[in-house]
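FAQ: What does the model actually see?

It sees only this:
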Amino acid sequence: MTEELNSLVRSAYSAVREAVLERRLLPGERVTVRPFAERLGISPTPVKAALAILEREGFLVARKHAGYFVAALTAADMRDIYELRSAIDALAARDVARTRHPELLARLGELLEGQRAALAAGDVETYGDLDREFHALIWHGSANRRLTAIADLLSAQLRLGHNLTTAVPGRPQAGLEEHGEIMDALLSGDTSAAEHATRRHVAQVIRALEKVLPEQGGRPSAGGGLGGEVEREAQVQVGDGQQPGHAHARGGQP
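And it is asked to produce this:
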C-alpha cells in the first residue's frame, strides 16, 4: 500500500471511528461507503479498507451481501471488555503505587480536582474527558510497555462504555468518589489497596453498564458478531478523529 493510500485510509478510518464513538452512527446502523467518500473527497477504495480495519477492531460487523453495520454491544460484550480492563488497571495501579513518581501523582491530583470542579458545575462532558485522562495516565505510569499497548487497543471500545455510564443517574458522582479512593491508595504507596480500589471501581462501572445495555445470550462470534438488526443507512456528518493504532492519554476510561 502506497503512503498516499495509507494516508487516505487513515482519514477514512478516523472519520468512521469518530462517527461511531460520538454516536452519530448508532448501533445496528448500516455504514455505507458513498457518504464518507463524498465528504472526504476520496475514492471508495480507502473507505472500504478503513471499514475492514474497524471490523477487525470490533467496531463494525460485516454481513454477507449486506455490507458493514455498527456493532451493537451487549452487557455480556462489555463485561468481557471490562474484565480485561480490570486486570490491566489493577496491574498499572500497583506499579504506580509502588514507584510513586511525584510528577505523575501531582498530575493525577490535578485531574481529580478538575473532575470535582466539572461535576460541581454540571459539566459532565468535561468530567468524562478528565476521567479518561486520569485512567490513561495510570496506565502509562506503568513500566510494563506491553500493558500500555494492550490498554491502548482497548481504549476506544472502553470509550463506548464510558459514553453510556455517564448517562446513568448518579454514576459520575460515584465514579468521582471511587477515583478518590484510588488516589488515596496511590499516594500512600499501598499496592494492595490500589489494586482493590481499582477493581472495585471497574466492578461498579460494569454494574452501571448492565443497567443500560441489553443482556443477549452468547459471546461475540469470531467475526466480531456484536451487531444489532437495524439496517438503516447512515447519512451522517463526517468528523475528524484518531488514526489507527495511535491512542493517547485522552483515550483512557471511566
